[in-house]
Structure formats: structure tokens, C-alpha cells
Amino acid sequence: MSVSVRMGGGALLAMMLATTAMAQDGPDPTGDIVVSLPQGRAPQPLETRHVLDARDIALVDAVAADEILRRLPSVYVPVNSRGEAIAFVRGAGERQVALFYDGAAINVPWDNRLDLSLFPAALAGRAQVAAAPLAPLYGVSALGAVSFTPPRPAYGHVRGMIGSGGLREVEAVAPFTRGSTDVMIGGSYATRDGDTIADNADLPFSQRGALRTNTDREIASVFGRVGTSIGDHLLSVTAFHVDANKGIAPESDRPDGARFWRYPTLQHSLVSANAGLVLGPTTALDLVGWYQRFRQTIDSYTDDTYAVRNSQEANRDDTVGARLLLTQQLGRTRIIASANVLDSQHDQRDTTFTRGQPPALLPAFLHYRQRNWSFGLDATTALTDAITGEIGVGYDRVYYLETGDKPDTPDAKGWTGRVGLSWAPAEEWRIRAAVGRKIRPATMRELFGQALNRFLLNPDLQPERIVSADLGAEWRSDAAGASVAGFVQDLDGTIDQRNVGRLRQRINLIGSQVIGVEATAYWHPAPEWTLGGNGTFARSRRKGTTGDQTDRLAEKPDVIGRVYGDYDGQSGFGALAEVLYTGRAYSADADGVLVALPRSASVNVRMSQRVRFAGVAADVFARGDNLFDDRIVPQIGLPAPGRTLRIGLTISGG
Fold it and tell me: For the TonB-dependent receptor plug domain, which residue ranges apply (predicted)?
């Protein structure tokens, strides 16, 4: 059965307000900044934030992080033609969104993004999004931010799950406590044969079999965290290693020019150390340092049989980063001095095959290197008992230290800043406004990468310059809450693409603008029930277009939203029903012409039953996603999965 749901923005807003914001907004999600400071050291933020806690994440039954983030307000997670699941925040593209794990930046600097479909969900105990304007302390290119923290369960658990497309998954997490030291170790393994296909998916080319062509995936991970306290000081070390491989679905709307790629190897490792030091009654120092290792191989094939390789790209990335935040309280004023540094080496070897065979002598690796510096000073002061003001200034600079076989490129640099006010007229209310400026330099890949002869280089790319503003109001009571925020993002020099023959080339547009509103609401009509929803309505347009040019931007839907009902019964029975809605978006066809994508709605249902015995809890669950098999197309020729079913069992202590 295939049902295509068509809901306008007004209908979605009516549904959302009728059910009245995310249950995740019930508790205060703003006790710490996304990137580092421990609870209680940061003032109420001026940016918009939303949180998914451990229970919210568990209800998603996710294999990878992209499935989690689709539940956060204003976060859109399409899958591009490289097979990467990438996060947009309020229309800000993936290279404008900073990703953090326990305070460490995990974007791969070569392209300033990360494939979230290969970041295991088992690593995430909490997920948070922060939307612009962000303070200078977030670092270079951060117009929006997404942060994950490791799981910190009170009891260990083991989960096994099977599902459509040959899905098999198992994960385990075990916590230990010894005095003031907490230890957590875990691991996960997941594999699938491929994605399901909606009955009405339009795939005229390169589609083979009942599952989506070339969408098998395998992910394994191990991870751990050790945290302790020495007096008032907090110390922790976090580490993970991910080993994965997967196929990339071809663009099946075109008879030629599609990518026929596989990732036969991908390894992603991180080691980070955090120190929260109390230097005095009014002074604190927070330090984060990390090393990230990323290895990836891309095999390109001649056709959709994936039998004959014609080229290979091997990538090696090593990144060292550090962040320092010095917090000083001076009466009613709090000052945070920040410094961020990131040094990344990217080595790449492109190999051309002849009749499927590599050359006798492999070419040498080309070496690229980049260093980011960011400095900031943020001051927050209580102007009255109800009004708080903030001003922040910073400076970002990116050095392109090695450029492979390409000409040297000038450094990118620019100032950043934010100013805002927050007013709390009553305990339940808060109203805030902020305006800020950032730059977003071109990444090394945008400047030097040719993607196996798919891109024509443009050495004249300039940094994007971004001014953003946010006006929001929040209300909360014991049983309900709501928030609304209007936002504007004005970009000069937007980096986009154009077609040059059969190649693509990155260019600077005159600019672009995003204007929108985000609303959330939640309501607890009874202790066992939560009703809620969120919606983001955004108008994304190019600036400076003429009458014969479109002013649309690719893959920027005008509406995204979620409505849900969650029942958690005392008997152990649980049920969740939700609708994820995506409005009108546009995508470039084989000729580079933007065409409209279908609106879509995914109806998802979950049921579970918990049984306790001998100090152990067993949860049996069943989940169905996209139950009506709607055609969901985040990018032309690359539809999302059709109807999928999952069943599983979680056994935990406590």
C-alpha cells in the first residue's frame, strides 16, 4: 500500500499547536554550552537549543546518528550523491554546521563535514543542537552546532535488533563506578543488505533487485570514557574507534553521469581529554584536547554492476585540536575568553585503473594541510534582575599550509561577533534576541578536490560572510511548554555549484538569504503521556538573480516538522507514534536545472513491553518507519528508504 501525504505548512503548524513542543524541551536543556562548559558554569544562552536525552534516543532504535538527528527541531538530514548523511540547521549547510563529541570537534576538516550514517548511534547518550547566531567560542565556520555526549547509563545494557533489508545489529554498554571515578565501555556492530524501496519510487536507471542498488552497509565500533573528580576539578578521557564499509546508491534519474562508488574501507578514531579546573571562587578554566584519525577509500566503477573499477581515491586525515575557555565572574558580569586551534593533514592518492587493474606503480600521495585559529571574548552581564546582556567579539583565521599539486592559496580571515539581550519577565517566561556575524572559509576539498575527475577547480573561491539574527520566546510550566523563534541568515558570497559541460564547479554566488520561524510545543496531559511537536518554516533564496534565473537553493525544504504522541505506562507497555514531514525542496537534475521534489510524510510507530525479573529488565520492541511507504526524495534520483520494520530486545540492569 502506498499513500502520499500532502500537508501544507499551515496544516502542519495547526497539528503541532493542537498537540502543543518537544518533550525534550521540558527539562532545561541550556545548562551548559554545546561545546564544553560543565553544568552551571555558563549563563543562559542567547542561541536556540534543543536536546534529545537518553530515553528519547532509545525510542528511535537507531543504528546511526543520522536517524537520531532527524528528531531535533530545525535539523534536516539529507543523503547526498556521495552517500553521506549530512546535517543542515535552519538552512545552514553541512559545512556551516560544527559537530562535537564530548567537546571535541569531529568534522573532518578536509571538507568540514562528517557522514552521520557511519557514526554509530551507540556512541550517543545525548544529542543537542544549537542554532545561530552562535558565540565566537564555537570556532571557525560554526553557524549552527550539533553535539553528542557519550552514554552514561546507570546500568549496563545489551540490545539486539533485526529488520528490513537484512538489518542485524547488536550493541552493549557497561558502566562501572569506583569511588569518584566513572568508567563506561561499549561496542556495537550493525550490517544490512540494502535499503528498502517505496512502491512508487521513480528509479528508471541503475536499479537492480528488490533492495536499493548498492546500499549495503557494515559498521563496527568500540568506545569508552573515564571520568573522575579531584576536589572541584573534573577530568575525563573519551575514545572511540569506528570501522565501516558501504555502497553508495547511484543517481537513478539519469542514464549516464551517475556515480558508481563504494567505500570499501572507512576508519574513524578519536581520543579526547577534558579538564574542568576551578582556579578560584570566581575563576574556572576548561580545556579540551583531541586527536582524530580518519581513513577512507573510495572505489569508482564503470557501471551499476560494480564489477570493474576505473579509479580509486585513498584518503588519510590526521587532526589535532584544542580549545581553552577561561571563565571569570566579576560581580554581575561573566567573561569567557576562548581560543580554538585545529591542525589537519590530508593525504590523498588518486589512482586510475586499466580494465579494472591498478597500475604496476601506484602514484604518490598528495599532501594538504590546514590550520584554523579562533580567538574570542564574550561578556555577559545582569543589567537588571530580569534583563541580561551579552557582547562577544572574535577573530577567525584559516591557513592553507600545503596544497598538494595545486598553487598556493591565500589565508582566509575575518572577525566574528555577537550581541544580544535576554529578558525573563516571570519565572516561566524568557524572551531573547541576538545578532551575530561569522565567516565560512572554503574547505580544502572545495579549493583542491576534484572528486575522481567530477569537479573543475576554482582557485578564486572566497569565504562566505554571514550575518544572522534570532528573536525567540520560551514558556514552560510543570505540564506544558512552548517556544517560538524567528530567524534570519544573510550570506554574501554563498559557495554553490554550477555545471561546466559534464563537470561541476564551485562558485561564489552574490549571496543568499534564509528567513524563517521555528516553533516547538509539548504537553503532559497525564503522567504517562506526552504530546508534542515542532516545525520549522524557512524561505531560502539566492540574491541578485535575474528574470530568467531561479532564485531557489538546492536541497533546502521550506518546511520540516515532527508531531508525536508518547505513552510510557506503569505496566511496562510503551507506544510512540510520530509523523516526520518534509515540505517543498528543489534539486539539480543531470543538466544542472533545479526541479521540484515531492513533499513527503513518514508515519512511524513503535510499541514495546518491559518485563522485570531477578533485577533485570527486558524490553521487547517493534518499530515501523514510513508505514505508508511514501516516496521521500531528499535529492533527485536518490530516494530515502521505503517502509522498514525492526524488532528487537534490550536487556538491562536495574
Answer: 49-146
User: What pLDDT shows up at residue 46?
Assistant: 81
Three-state secondary structure call for residue 33: coil
Which one, of 85, 81, 455, lies nearest residue 258 by Cα?
81
Asked: is 9-653 a CATH 2.40.170.20 domain? The reply is yes
Separation CA 101–CA 274 (nearest Å) = 11
Query: Reduced to 3 states, what is the DSSP secondary structure of residue 334?
Result: strand
DSSP conformation letters of 539-576? EEEESS--TTS----TT--SEEEEEEEEEE-TTSEEEE
**pLDDT on residue 653:** 87
Which residues have CB under 8 Å from 285's CB, separation 6+? Answer: 275, 276, 277, 279, 324, 325, 326, 327
Q: Which of 18, 70, 15 is nearest to 480 (CA)?
A: 18
pLDDT, residue 18, reads 34
In this prediction, residue 449 carries a pLDDT of: 84
User: Please, where are the H alpha helices in 301-433?
Assistant: none
Which pLDDT score, from 0 to 100, does residue 38 have?
45
Walking along the chain (654 residues) 10 residues at a time, the average pLDDT comes out as: 37 33 31 44 72 96 98 95 94 92 95 96 96 88 93 94 98 95 97 97 93 98 96 95 98 92 97 94 94 97 96 97 94 94 97 94 96 95 94 96 93 94 94 95 90 79 93 95 96 86 84 95 97 97 82 93 97 97 94 92 98 93 98 95 98 86
Say what the pLDDT of residue 452 is: 67
DSSP string, 260-287: -EEEEEEEEEEEEEEEEEEEETTEEEEE
* pTM of the entire predicted model: 0.92
CB 563 within 8 A of CB 580: no
pLDDT of residue 159: 98
- Please give the DSSP secondary-structure letter assigned to residue 427: T
Q: Are 57 and 68 a contacting pair, CB within 8 Å?
A: yes
Number of residues written out for the chain: 654
Could you tell me if 299 and 285 are in contact, meaning their C-beta atoms sit under 8 angstroms apart?
Answer: no
Buried b (16+ CB within 10 A) or exposed e, 364-373: eebebbbbbb
CA dihedral 591→593→596→602, nearest 10 degrees, is 50
CA end-to-end distance (rounded Å), the chain: 42
* Cell numbers describing residue 589: 537534475
Strands 366-382, 333-352: pairing kind = antiparallel
Instruction: Indicate the pairing of strand 503-508 with strand 455-456.
Output: parallel
DSSP label at 549?
A: S
Helix (H, G, I), strand (E, B) or coil at 559: strand
Instruction: Give the bridge partners for 396, in sequence order.
Output: 374, 414
CA pair distance 292, 343, nearest whole angstrom: 10
Q: Is the dihedral of CA 134, 148, 644, 212 positive or negative?
A: positive
DSSP 635: B
